[in-house]
Amino acid sequence: MGYTKDRLLARLQELQIEFSKYEHPVVLTVEAQAKYVGNVGASLSKNLFLKDKKQRFYIISALADTKVDLKVLSQRLGLGKGGLRMAPEEALGEILQVPLGCVTPFALVNESARHVSLLLDQGFKSQQKCLFHPLSNDTSISLNTFSLDTFLKSIGRDPSYVDLEANPKVGKDQPPDLAALVPSDSIVLPEFAEGAPPSEHSNENHAVTDVKPKTVKAKAVKTPAAAEKVKDKSSTGVLPSISFTDAGQFVEEILDKTSAILLSEIREDTVRQHGEQLGAVVSDTLRKRLSSELKNLAIMFKNTAYTEGFHAGTHYQPKRP
Amino acid sequence: MEKREEGVNEEGAAAAAAVEAAGEAEEAEVNPWEVSGKIDYDKLIDKFGCQRLDQSLIDRVQRLTARPPHVFLRRGVFFAHRDFNEILDAYERGDKFYLYTGRGPSSEALHLGHLIPFMFTKYLQDAFKVPLVIQLTDDEKCMWKSLSVEESQRLARENAKDIIACGFDVTRTFIFSDFDYVGGAFYKNMVRVAKCVTYNKVVGIFGFTGEDHIGKVSFPPVQAVPSFPSSFPHLFNGKDHLRCLIPCAIDQDPYFRMTRDVAPRIGYHKPALIESSFFPALQGDTGKMSASDPNSAIYVTDSAKDIKDKINRYAFTGGQDTKEKQRLYGANLEVDIPVKYLSFFLDDDDELEHIKTEYGSGRMLTFDVKKRLIEILVEIVERHRRARAAVTDEMVDAFMAVRPLPSMFS
């Protein structure tokens, strides 16, 4: 199941990324989007989902006005002259898990988009803020490149800004300048038995075998008697909130919350009011206010650890006899 | 149809009478598929034949669990029970029990009313340190709503994520969907139960007609058998006399009346019940929150702004029309929704009393009460959202895996 808009926005809030949210009727084009958010002081983006002949996928995210020449880009990537074309519609749902008209850098939050390369328009950097769809066509969010970078880094991506309008010579002595941005792995799309809607039903129809750790291959084979359901890896979102997988972060968060209350409770007036008893009073307050919240955090930490163990247990290879 | 009446069963007779009475002059309708009308809970307890959860039981819970009783107990949200005292008796003797609750996954949109039984069940799990099985009746929703099998299965998984986000302990919790789990020992118990319930009886309890399809008629055993530990051999092997406690909303009582009637006939303990009243809709006291009316409820996906708007615009208040009148006459706490909601979610008894006194006398305005409520609701919804974001598909798989739970009683 792909990330939903709400889940993404919650994630951005957790990461303390600043953004402004604008809701509007569903839009499928930049022109339509401009009608609603053209005047909010942020620059519109156009987003292309492309693929090359070797089943490698790319998102090009650019300012609406930037001229994007697919032939030039194709050469700069080292794919030859006609190497890049628009990705098929099913790929949108299968890989990016977004609807039509909703290509966005944020789609990379989905595990299924792990191998999609992202090229960002250098032009974004000179804008105050830029607008993107947060996985849904009925909303746009504006944020600056610093914030976008923070998000991308949080999902393990190195943001790559490119002068998309440049047209450097590519030849024997001038290697393609964007070759490093070509993904290392291709993505094989499963064959669809019937024209089923993407992502929602893909889990039930496909059995997945992990051949190598980096490649995801899927076969459209129904396994009726399968005792164990091997889960398609594209169904999980990227890592849950960091605090629940990283013990250090977890502890830091607890200490942050505790400190915050401690500092707010020890003031001139409370010192005067309680004197020597202030320690006991604050200690009680801390328990009262934090006990339930911290227990909830701890349970999530425990459940996350158990789940990772569960995954290890269901995927481990027994020792050879 | 052979009649297998082994003497008059009190609860069965009460049930039959309840359905009859409900059909007559009363406007209120309470059964697992419909709740409407103004509900008189005292009358309901009488009609259904369950017990009031009184203060002595609450005190006993506090003693046995060495922690303050949950806010829902203190405020009478969970107000009725069947055999809860027997569960506590056994617990005191060292005989543990397990919890059973469930959800019919009919829509993706969960509202706070849906979370209430789960919040309470989590408290019970933590306080008593006992295991929990959670049934997702995807088959029921498939049969009663116009949902395909696949869609109801998908909704079950999505709902499972919200349920997990309530904070259940994976080392003590087994979540299952009917489409996945029915079979084996579970199905054997279903047949045992089914053999003990005549067609006429099930029509009497649930009001089926000749037009209802046979799926509906044969569904009740599915919801009955999780009450029996032998339905879960991977968890409770050899523990046939383990008791079961079912926290649920009071409209589920008919299912469990039937179950309690059958249990002794097949050699099992009757499951105990602890029942809640309905979380009122934003617009007032008529029935319960409905997933089909977005403004009747606060959804777990609502933003802080949505919550603020909904409470300010749609919450039915008992406050006076003007500030001046409010200061003179005070608010009508009987019908005031913000105060009712606070009684569910404001943990601090003293603060709630203070608000009720000030608001009721007119010294506090509706605006202030709503403001405090919004603060609390936003906190709850944000916490839920964050927890939900941490639930991966893999975590759902872990909760739903048929696996032993070795530390479920520790």
Structure description:
The complex is a heterodimer of chains A (321) and B (410). Helices cover 35% and strands 13% of the residues of chain A. Chain A is built from 9 helices and 10 strands. In chain A, strands 1, 2, 3, 4, 5, 6, 7 and 8 form an 8-stranded mixed β-sheet that branches. A two-stranded antiparallel ribbon of chain A has the order 9-10. Chain A starts with a helix and ends in a 6-residue tail after the last helix. By secondary structure, chain B is α/β, with parallel strands linked by helices. Helix content of chain B is 50%, strand content 12%. Chain B has a 7-stranded mixed β-sheet, with helices on both faces. The chains are: A alpha/beta (321), B alpha/beta (410). The interface between A and B is medium-sized, with 28 and 28 residues.
Q: What structural class results from the helix and strand content of chain B?
A: alpha/beta
* Shape by Cα distribution of chain B: globular
Mean pLDDT rating of chain B: 88
Low-confidence spans of chain B: 1-26
Distance between the termini of chain B: 47 Å
Counted beta strands of chain B: 11
Taking the sheet with the most strands of chain B, its summary is: 7 strands, mixed
Helix content of chain A: 25-40%
Query: What is the number of helices of chain B?
Result: 21
Quaternary structure classification: heterodimer
Spans of chain A of at least 5 consecutive residues whose pLDDT stays below 50 are 191-240
User: Which percent band covers the strand fraction of chain B?
Assistant: 5-15%
Give the strand order, joined by hyphens, for the main sheet of chain B: 3-4-9-8-5-6-7
Tell me the radius of gyration of chain A.
24 Å
* SSE series of chain A: HEHEEHEHEEEHEHEEHHH
